User: Fold this.
Amino acid sequence: MAVNAYVPDASFGGTTALGWLKWVIFMATIRDVAARAGVSVATVSHVMNESRFVTEDTKQRVLAAIAALNYRRDGIARSLRRSQTGTIGAIIADITNPFFSDLVKGIEDTIRGFPEKLNLILCNTEEDAARELLYLDVLMEKRIDGLILAPAGGNVAYLEALVARGFPLVFVDRSLSSVTADSVLVDNLAAATALVAHLIARGHRRIAVLKATLHASSITERVQGHAAAMAAAGLDFDAGMIVESASSIDAAFEGGRAILALDPLPDAVFCTNNFMTLGMMRALNEQGLRCPQDMAIAGFDDFQWADAFRPRMTTVAQSGYDQGCAAARLLRDRITKVQTGPAVHLVHGTALNIRESSG
Amino acid sequence: MAVNAYVPDASFGGTTALGWLKWVIFMATIRDVAARAGVSVATVSHVMNESRFVTEDTKQRVLAAIAALNYRRDGIARSLRRSQTGTIGAIIADITNPFFSDLVKGIEDTIRGFPEKLNLILCNTEEDAARELLYLDVLMEKRIDGLILAPAGGNVAYLEALVARGFPLVFVDRSLSSVTADSVLVDNLAAATALVAHLIARGHRRIAVLKATLHASSITERVQGHAAAMAAAGLDFDAGMIVESASSIDAAFEGGRAILALDPLPDAVFCTNNFMTLGMMRALNEQGLRCPQDMAIAGFDDFQWADAFRPRMTTVAQSGYDQGCAAARLLRDRITKVQTGPAVHLVHGTALNIRESSG
DNA sequence: TTGTATGCGTTATCAC
DNA sequence: GTGATAACGCATACAA
Assistant:
């Protein structure tokens, strides 16, 4: 490796403010390559981009110079010139939630397959709209080509303006009714209804909800699913049986405690996402209660180990990975203008995994 | 929001190849702002960066123009001029591994607190050195300011060259002995030794290892820990008791099956990471074997729900989050040249969580 | 088949 | 206290 062995010739630029950096971290430019190959910068550029015919001979000389100087083109300068960065953003709630880490992996695996060699800038809002706004601003300043967003629930005007400007935006997991953009979602209402109906079919009557406090359409719909299933069965429930907590395992643990303090005790709990389920189980555990004997639990979002430990959890499974893949494709199609019409909304399927935690 | 209401005046640039884009997605430039405020671009720049004194009056005019035009400076042009991008890369093994998602969250939370407003580009190698190389190239082309890396095990010359050039690099989770860079690690050898010693103390004698096949120093050391503990106890074991599988739950499931096919059957299994533990449990489950009655299990890496489900897992816990925070700080200090001496190596602590899976 | 020269939007160095 | 203007490194329109 001769990366740091090359000594720039005298033609190399002067010492501006940050010029010294270039001496420490020397990076050959397209001009250095052109000079060494005895051609113009245009030719070097065209060789790298295969954007016009170059005789085999000159091409080889250019390639040799590139190798000798260990030249890598400057993506920043290239981005400035082409007005596209090859970078997309993903603003999600929380990467430690298995649903989102699967989703992000789906995005990554998919964009890696694209010839455009897209990159992903990752941001966690932790369900905070203020943080979302901050990230939106930073990403816009970074001139990302498009954005995959699990909206925290605010910034509607900002997002509307973005979409109005034609900026490529894809919603995942949830959407904002007032913002018309592509989306990849699941039918939360139907899935939650089916899950709670299953609980009812198992004989449970007092079914509490451990609800993540967030302004996400997905969560709202899941709670509506609970109400729908209860109503369909002619079952009543009071608002006190819907306990809210922030969307983290620790907060859900407290929420779970609150549910276990309910009087009379519910005989089943519907957890609106991964974190709620985990927190609920921890609370149950703390009180020495057994699932499903003492309390049945069913949750939205499956997790990879849901069937390897006891109790095996009854869940609605959705593939974060597949949704990530779909979102990435949608976004790419918008960026490349393969897709230009009105917003497209993808609804992915869910599966009801009936295991033992529901009794 | 008047983002898309502004009609650029006649002075607005001509139509180059991508010029049309500017009409669809109109973005005011520093010149538009200067023109509207009746000042020079220099003044606008200085107002935005607070880099020289500007009278309150002109400053207000500039600020008003910025607001009116909804101007956001172009980070790309800025990066080109300043030769720094405010972007760092993180190349890790797999974001769906809870250890790494915690780590990434630690990085994010930390860089968000920096005044530099750093951004994170995320890459998963899935333990593939070829993929790592690809990402290294892309990230270098993107001119990232620094890199946090969990090396897949190859690309040594490339990384050496990077470090020799003074490029800020921090290893996490594992390191490459031939590359001298900052690192954040744990004492894998000691922790694994203690874990296996615990298994031995519990009366287990035939202790198998479910080992992730990867060229990571961390895994090698964990396996050495097993050997050390066995030797210290005067226990023998044959190589057949060390079963390898790729580092994914599915592969570990197969590996777990292989272990359960061993004859004679081991009475305990040491799993070298999260995924191995999960796959092993799934295999156990498939065969209808109980843990710890039929087989004791202990794993490296704790997970948030390790104590909420049965069996509660005995594990070595390390904080991916804290390691992410530390790595981000180390990297920032290198980037800003707050830290300039020889490589610093941080060794974070681990905790032995003795729960029920070890019998 | 190749070269010259302009400009992308900033920042920073001068000059006034 | 402010303004002109030259880079930054590349892609590309236009020449040759």
Chain B has three domains: 10-73, 85-185+321-348, 188-319+352-358.
